Amino acid sequence: MLETKQISCMDIAGSIFSRIEDIDEDINAYIRVEKESALESAGRIDGKIAAGEKVEDLMGIPVGIKDNICTKSITTTCASKILENYVPVYDATVIKRLKKRDYILTGKLNMDEFAMGSSNENSFFGSVSNPWDTGRVPGGSSGGPAASVASGEAICSLGSDTGGSIRQPASLCGIVGFKPTYGMVSRYGLIAFASSLDQIGPFSRDMEDCASMLNIICGHDRHDSTSIKTKTPDYKSFLKDDIKGMKIGVPEQLMVEGMDPEVKSAVGKALKMAEGMGAEIEEISIPNLKYALNVYYIIAPSEASSNLSRFDGVRYGYRDRTAKALRDMYKKTRARGFGDEVKRRIMIGTYCLSAGYYDAYYEKALKIRTIIINDFKKAFSKYDILISPTSPTTAFKTGEKMDDPLTMYLSDICTIPANLAGLPAVSIPAGLSKAGLPIGLQIMGDVLREDNIIRAAYSLEKAIAFKGVPNI
Amino acid sequence: MKRISSDDVKHVARLAELEFSDEQISRITPQLDKILEHVARISIVDTEGIQSTSHAVEIKNVLRDDIADDSISQEEALKNAPEEEDGGFSVPRID
Q1: What is the reported pTM?
Q2: Containing domain of residue A278, as a range?
Q3: Number of structural domains, chain A?
Q4: Is A360–B59 a contact, with Cβ atoms under 8 angstroms apart?
Q5: Within the 387-446 window of chain A, which residues sit less than 8 Å (CB to CB) from chain B?
Q6: Cα–Cα dist A423/A415, whole Å
């Protein structure tokens, strides 16, 4: 529509910002709105289009960015008091790539502090509400990126996924959320939580926009030594409505105990559709997946405790001014600058890495990580994709799990395995519960086999025909 | 696995350069104990002869030539500093 000039970038941006002005008071998806600069960019891009410049995918499209991705000269807080006034002096690689495409930055999106959480209740800037029911959580840690796209406060957004932080909120908000293969998207400029698990990925309403976003953000970057040197495919070429002959495994370990029966039945219905389209479905057992959550809650906090040691009040961020000596300043800065969940994870990680416990916790977890990876290799030698629910439940009530960290951790049980093995995975909407809450379906693929995931997700998206829009 | 005590929590807090009040210690100790008890269930898994994985997608020897490139300026590096003095980061006295 931009190409045929039926609509201008200014129109699109204008409608997004009026939506933000109307509803963000209730949703709280944004930590910072960049209206002025966005409208300026929209005008500039309209000028380019009027002058006959070719309209590329996502040119002039309003995109929101999770607030742990560095944006030059624009405050980037990680939803933490410790970075409340941090202004990056450089752009993350993904931002550079989006800028090259003339995207429009709507603003910086709310999240769980340092991406630690499954409900977006751990933000220094207040919790985010689910657009489908504002008394419920949007999921986390990318609650802002998910809620903004679901409620029409952005067309697409970027989040990060360490244990499910893209897929679980996408599931709870009824949109598409994709975590690419570890190493396909540069982490340069993503404020690190757990470096061996973190991956940036897009949120969108449908698979087509998702593939367009992947085309822009994926690719090698010399600034990230874990970035994979491989030719980046055209992800849009995998948007094929055809899964005939595709082999789908359904891991019984991800159909967890205590799962909401409505979630189970929505996933079952989608599997029936896949079968009807000619895919071969088999229930499989990946026994060691039952240790994934345990392994994750050793590895992720361990890496976090190391990564977050840089926040000490010296080079950037908050500093406690009452301390008279250096170590006291470190302690008070960190005690007052970090929220409860971040401190909890730093403590778990420090414990797991400390003398006397390293072998029993951290080293042991790394070995079981190998076992889980090998199990997945075996599974993908027989199956093209694995399907499961994304989250065992629909969106839960705000406050419901805040007093019990372990119960909160269990919300990531279906999503964590993909991070441990570096696998690509997507969550797509599979339907609504009787209470009108979205249910998500997860598709995992082998390393660098985004093609299979996109093909299956696109075909199922057509079959499921999810039309739900939150009534807000 | 042994249960963790409030003294363990105080010890780990010192290692992590964190500070908790007594009230916070009594709240956080059972939480950490419960989490650590849960994750420690992996002790039953046989990992004899298994290599550890620190990176899921194997990449070997990422090297590059040492070429001088632009970097951020001193002014930019100090832009976010809570305190600076004479072009450097300033901190309270070292005890």
Answers
A1: 0.97
A2: 1-472
A3: 1
A4: no
A5: 405-406, 409, 419-423
A6: 10
